[in-house]
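INFO  loader      accepted 1 record
INFO  loader      residues=304
INFO  predictor   begin
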Amino acid sequence: MFQSIHGVAIDAGSGLEAALRKARGSAALPDDLLTFKRRIVRALSPHASTVLVDAALGRDLLPVFATGCLPMLAYEADVYRIADDDRITVLPDNLTVADYPALGVKHLKFFLYYAPHGDPAVNRRKRDLVRQIGAECGRHDIRFLFEPLVYDDATAPGTAAYAKLKPTLVRDATAAFATPDFHIDVLKVEVPVDLDYVDGFGKPTMSRAQAEDAFAEAAAAAGGIPLVYLSAGVTFERFRASLTLAHEAGIDYAGFMCGRAIWSDGIAVFGNGGEAALTDWLQDTGTARLKELIAATTPQLQET
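INFO  predictor   done
INFO  writer      dumping tokens
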């Protein structure tokens, strides 16, 4: 069981593979995605409590985890692969929940796009799927980390209108999965505000006090389920500020799972300088970023 979660997510699939291919150009190799991920696991797992890997390459990455860093395996075919217009996650065809114990993996992550105010019939199907996965995790003694990614059919993300709606979406999605019948051990949730529209960060439509209230209301919706925040593709500086703001709001959260905010700049480094340059960058900048996020999550570390 996690005491606190200082997690690195490297479960991206086809989208990351395409970005690496573009960055590498004529030097691209078929196994660049595996090489990139292996280097991240080697460099950052000694400092992380867990690293999240994908179903496709996860088995190949498990042997390079540092001792004491718990592996977490995503239960999705590809985070970029969605079944239909209802945005239902496609499950892997090379992995079942029953396979986890034999792999030595005790933590499963599953994500699902969820529109709290969307079609009730679609939302019932999605909740049934999460409930099914949770029950399988319970049968096989696997800890279940569930990640609801919110959206609204009528409002585009990144806009002022979406920034106004986002606290409600995150709160309502959190509440929808906070009941015991889902067997969720940890909820991996979005930061409930867009800092680009919070006073002190961007063009404000929300005061800092309102942002803190949004954090508190969304966190309260989880009941007793531990919360970790995901970075959702924002910059490292934005995610670090979000974790600090959560603490200022008085949120007792369990930690973070961070992917691109830590390692996305490494794509260009890998493209320009290859594996050796990426290794150096991860040992310097990548490690420093992870340690800064840990300090932001645990403010008392900054005082010692």
